[in-house]
Amino acid sequence: MSEADRGLADAPPILSDVPGSFTWRVLHDRHPAIIEQVTAAFPYPPRIRAALARLAEDAVSGVIEPLPADAHDAADWAGWSAPYLGMSWYDVPFLWAENYFYRRLLEAVEYFRPGPWRGLDPFTPQKSAELADPALDADLAALAGLAGRPVEEQLTAAVDAALWGNRADLATRVSDPDAEHRKQASDLVADDSAVLRRLLAPGSGGTVCLVADNAGRELMPDLVLIDVLLRNGLADRVELHLKPQPYFVSDAMLHDLLSCLRRLAEAAPALRERLLAALRDGSLEVVTDAFYCEPLSYHDLPGDLAARFREAKLTIVKGDLNYRRLVGDRHWPAATPFEAVTAYFPGAVAALRTLKSEVLVGAPDVAALDAAGPGWRLDGTHGLIQVRT
Fold first, then answer.
1. Residue 205 — φ and ψ, nearest 5°?
2. What Gene Ontology biological process does one annotation of this record name (predicted)?
3. Low-confidence ranges of the chain (pLDDT < 70)
4. Are 218 and 165 spatial neighbours (Cβ–Cβ below 8 Å)?
C-alpha cells in the first residue's frame, strides 16, 4: 500500500526544484563535494575516477538513468525508479534522489563488482579521522563515568548525548564545515523525555531496538545508551540496527561498530568489556537489513523488521534520515501530531533527532522560529525527543 493510500497525500513530497533552496543545494553543491572527497580518498584507477566524474556531472545537470542491467539489484531499482526515469534529479522526491545518488556512487567505485575495490567503504578515511580525534577522549571519559550516578540521571545524560551526537554528521560538514561548532540550542522543539523515561523504567526489561544513524562520534554515545539500558535493567536485550553497506557518508555499519569498540580499548576499557560481553551473550544483537539502504519510508517495512519492532517494547530511531523515513519526507505543517503520522508503525517508537532538514511534525510552537527563516531547521542547533506509545 502506498503512502497516498495511508492518507499522506495531503502533505506533498519534498522536491529539490527551487534553485537556492536547501534541498537544491544538497543536490547541486553537497553531492559534487562528496564525490570530490571520495575521489581523493583512495588511489582509484582511471575507470573509477572517470565514473565518479560522470556521476558528478550527471547528478547536477543530467536526468535519472537506470542502473547497469548487470547490477546485482538492478531489478529492484528498476521498480523503484520506474516513475522517475528521464526526469531531472531536482524534480523527483528529494529522499529518493538522495538514496539513488549514494547507490550510483557505490556503482561508480565498484563496491559490488568483482575486483580489488569490492567491499571498500569509500567513506572510511573520513570516519577514521573522526574516531582518531583526541577531543573524543574527553567526551568518552565523561560518558564512561555515568555508572556511579543515579539511574535516572544516567538515562537522561545518555539520551541527551545520543541526541546531540547527531548534531553534525560528516555529510553536513562537507557543505557546512562550521556546523559542528555552531552554538547548540538548549531547548528542544518537542520533548517527550518523560514518556521515554516511563517506557524505560528500572527493572522494566524487555527488548529495545535502536536504529542507528551515523558512525564515529554519534555511534559512541549510542553505545553508552545501550550500556545504560542493559546495566540498569531498563532493557533485557538491545538490538542495534546498522546499515548493511555504505550509505549517507557517515552511516554506521558493522565495521564502524568494531572500530568504535577498538577506540574504547584505551578511552573506556570497562565500557568496552561490558559491550563485548553483551555481544557474546546475546543481550546485545547486531541487526542489518537491505531495507535500510532502500529509497523507501518506514511505511514499507519488510515483514521481518516489522515483526522485530512489533515485539520490542520500544524502537528508538536515531537521526535526521530515520526521522524523514519515519514520518514521510513531506511538507508537513509543524503542528501535525507525531502520533498521527506514526500510527502505522508496528510498535512503540521514539525519535531522537537533531534537525538538519526541513521536515518536522509534532511541534506546534515554532512559529517564531520559522518567522526568522528556515535556517534553524537545517543547522543542527535544535533537536527533538518524540515518542508514540
1. 60, -150
2. DNA damage response
3. 1-9, 166-186
4. yes
